[in-house]
Structures are given as structure tokens and as C-alpha cells.
Amino acid sequence: MRRMRLVIIGGDAAGMSAASQARKRLGRDVLEIVAFERGHFTSYSACGIPYWIGGVVAERDALVARTPDEHRKAGIQVRLRHEVTGIDLDRREVVARDLDGGGEVKTHFDHLMYAAGASPVTPDWATDRGAGIFGVQTLDDGAAIQEWLARDPAPRRAVVIGGGYIGVEMAEAMVRRGLRVTLLEKSDQPMAKTADPDMGALVRQAIEGLGIEVRTGAAVEGIDTEGGRVRAVVTPGGALPADIVLLGLGVRPNSALAEQAGLPVGATGGLRTDLRMRVEGVDGVWAAGDCVETRHLLTGRPAHVPLGTHANKQGRVAGINIGGGYATFPGVIGTAVTKVCDLEVARTGLTSKEADSAGFAYVTATVASTSRAGYYPGAETMTIKLIAERRTGTLLGAQIVGKAEAAKRIDALAVAVWNRMNVEEMTALDLSYAPPFAPVWDPVLIAARKATEAVHASL
Ligand SMILES: Cc1cc2nc3c(=O)[nH]c(=O)nc-3n(C[C@H](O)[C@H](O)[C@H](O)COP(=O)(O)OP(=O)(O)OC[C@H]3O[C@@H](n4cnc5c(N)ncnc54)[C@H](O)[C@@H]3O)c2cc1C
């Protein structure tokens, strides 16, 4: 077999999953693998950054699943602090800049894996990077935040702009570090993309319970800096003093480099791929993770859902295919989970707003129950909301807000959504029961019963 070279752009979840899978299938004598990463780390958990900053995880290195040296031992050449600046599809070559040593290297590829991730949305008024304004995406971003928090005098007031799950997790981390925190959200509830307003209200209560001031409907006009340090976030209602500002305004796929090379980018801004994660119409070029768009299996529409769970699976699929195997990534249904202090928040499928936008007619059912048998120590209240299609009763979505391992019930609901179950058949699901784990009627079953009644009433 002819020796080939796989070049990877981006050394985290998607890129290094692909590298590892391809390496498993093809030995060093057949496949050379070169990974370019512009940061200082490989295979890190960005998801763990809020917990490291908040002190729940003590060591930065605990977030690194595989160091560059470990990858090198597996026969993957890692070029850290190398930023790929150009892709030439005709020559099958990438150009990378050495960010520390200077200069450029050109590297030929037979296969190219594009896994450049995404970048935090950064409005024009938030680009003064040296001043204590941070987006959170890479472990380098996390390290920069840690450095800023360690400054003398220590920051005392944090403003988090954007109340999505990253904003909320970072707000909690700031509280844990002893800062006074304000969370600004332009819509009328935090986590508006995750939860319907009634469920979002429970999340807001939990955030405020941490002592975080939540301002919804809040527009930001700019950020004041002085002497190279942020001083305040300016809103129509006045200036909010801040010593650190964290952006949680969402992310955009890092697809510009690919687009410049002529690779197809979809309406969501993510690269378009086929089911095997091959970039649409381009042999030998693959893409995965936060830089790609995928298909929402309920709406059938393209979607950009930047989550580690997808990045790892898609990278694995690409790596298997690069290695000569066969694997596919069918799409997503919007499952996600997070927590605010001890309140857990989870979703799968569509929210009411998303179901409306997709054109579904639906009913909803919300139940409050307990996570364990009511008499068992540690039983906590949990709320489940189900969204089911009118007439067919097909489960379209579910949301859970609650404590004591409430949120992981979303996985049973995700399986039901994935398999297009209707809520009536769900009432008979053989879910587990013992007092330390659930009431005799698990909240999922109670919710399915109530949703069934709502479907029948809608006929
Ligand atoms: C704070 C936080 C919490 C999160 N929590 C969760 C969670 O709980 N659950 C979940 O499923 N997901 C979570 N995520 C999302 C998850 O981390 C991402 O979806 C995942 O990291 C995406 O992996 P990726 O490999 O596609 O991109 P990234 O992890 O962004 O990696 C891309 C890499 O490419 C490098 N790069 C970019 N451009 C170039 C270039 N031109 N040349 C060389 N290198 C380049 C970057 O430096 C980066 O290291 C969280 C993210 C954050 C930021």
C-alpha cells in the first residue's frame, strides 16, 4: 500500500478523535499523521473549564485527556503553536505559521481533517483582549482567565454577557471565586435556547439563589476600559462596574479558512459534510466538530450544534472512514445537560419555540415529582415538561429541571425522541425502580401519562 499522509487542523476533540481512529486502523508504515494546533494543548476538555476556574477541579492538567507527547508516542506528530493559514486543494497542501518560532511550513496531504472548532461571538465593542474581556472556548482561554483572576489587585466584580449555558456556568465559577456577579441576557430569560419560559423561570431562581444579579432584556452598548483594564459594561440603564467581563454570546464555526479554500459552507456558517463526515463533494477532505453543520433529525433542517458529544462522535466517524472503514453520523436531536449549583437542567428534541418554527402542532404536559421515593433521604423535587405532536402523540421534546441526578433522565427521553416513540407507548416503558433511585412511578412515566391525556384531549 502507498504511504499516505493525514493532516489535521485543530488538535482537540474532533481532530484528535479522527487521528486516533485512523491510527488504530492504519499503522505508521501506511499512514503518517501530522496535527497542527495553534494553542498549547491537545485533546483537552473545554467543557471542564468552568469547573477548573471555579475550583471544583483543582488542576488544569486534569482537563487534558491526552498530551502532545502521548499522541507522539502513538505515532501522531503534533505541531503545537502552529496556525494553519492556507489550504491549497489543487496542490493538496496546507500552509502553517509557527506562532512562536516565526516562519511558515508547507505540508502535503493525501487526507485532510478540518477540525478548527468555533470561536466565541465577539461584538466590536468587546475585542480589547488584553483588558480583561474573555470569550471561553479553548483551554488557552481558560488559562488566560485564570491569569487575570490572579492579578493584583484581584478582580472583585464580574459581568457575564449572555445567559446561555456557558455564560451561566462561568457566572457560577465567578461566584465560587468570590466575585460579585451580574449576568446580562438580552432575551427575557436565561438559557432561552435550552428551556421554555416556564422552565427557564426555575433556572433563573436558581441563578439568583447563588447571589447572581440577573438582568434580562438587557442590551449592551459597550465596555469602558481604563489603563488597559476593563472598568464597566455600559448598558442603556447605566454603567455596571466590572473588573472582568466574560462573553457567553454563543459561538461561530471557524469555517473561514475552509471557505477561502473553496470548501462548501452552509447557511448556518458550518462546513457541509456527507454522512461519513467527508466534506461535500471533495474527496479526501473531512470535517467534524464545532466547525461543521449537521442535520436536525426532527426538523430535517441543517443545524449548528456545537457540543463536545457530537465533536467526538463525528471525529471518530471521520477517522474510521479515513482508515478505510465505514461509519456514519446521522444527525442530532438537540440533547444537552448542564447545572446551576445543584439545580440540573436538561433538554432533548425541540423546545416549544423550535417546534413552532418547524411547523409542528403539539401539546405540552408538565409534571412535578421527586427524584427518589418521597420518603427516601435526599428526595428532591423535579419538573419534567414533554412536548408531543398533536394527533400522533410522537414525542418531540423534553425538558427537565431538578436536583439529585434528575437531569440524566433526559437520556431515556432522548432515546424515545430518537426512536420516534409516542407518549402513550412510553407510559408502559420498563424503567427501573427502587426507592433510592425513583418513586414507584418514575417522573418520566408520570409525564408520559399526562402528555397522553393532553394528546387525547386534542383529538
Ligand atoms: C466552557 C465550555 C463548556 C462546555 N461544556 C460542554 C458540555 O458540557 N457538553 C458538551 O457536549 N459540550 C460542551 N462544550 C462544547 C465542547 O467543548 C465543544 O463542542 C468541543 O470542544 C468541540 O470540539 P472541536 O474539536 O470541534 O473544537 P475545539 O475544541 O474548539 O478545538 C478546535 C481546535 O482547533 C484549533 N484551531 C482553530 N483554528 C486553527 C488553525 N487555523 N490552525 C491550527 N489550529 C487551529 C483551536 O486552537 C482548538 O484547539 C463546552 C464548551 C465550552 C467552551
TrEMBL record:
Record-level Gene Ontology MF annotations: oxidoreductase activity
Domain Pyridine nucleotide-disulphide oxidoreductase dimerisation: 337-439
SUPFAM superfamilies associated with the record: FAD/NAD(P)-binding domain (SSF51905), FAD/NAD-linked reductases, dimerisation (C-terminal) domain (SSF55424)
Pfam families for the chain: Pyr_redox_2 (PF07992), Pyr_redox_dim (PF02852)
Keywords for this protein: FAD, Flavoprotein, Oxidoreductase, Redox-active center
Cofactor(s) in the UniProt record: FAD
Domain FAD/NAD(P)-binding residues, every copy: 5-305
UniProt entry tagged with the keyword Cytoplasm: no
Domain of life: Bacteria
InterPro entries, per database record: FAD-bd_OxRdtase (IPR050260), FAD/NAD-bd_sf (IPR036188), FAD/NAD-binding_dom (IPR023753), FAD/NAD-linked_Rdtase_dimer_sf (IPR016156), Pyr_nucl-diS_OxRdtase_dimer (IPR004099)
Family membership: Belongs to the class-III pyridine nucleotide-disulfide oxidoreductase family.
Name of the molecule in the record: Flavoprotein oxidoreductase
Organism: Paractinoplanes rishiriensis
Higher taxonomy: Bacteria, Bacillati, Actinomycetota, Actinomycetes, Micromonosporales
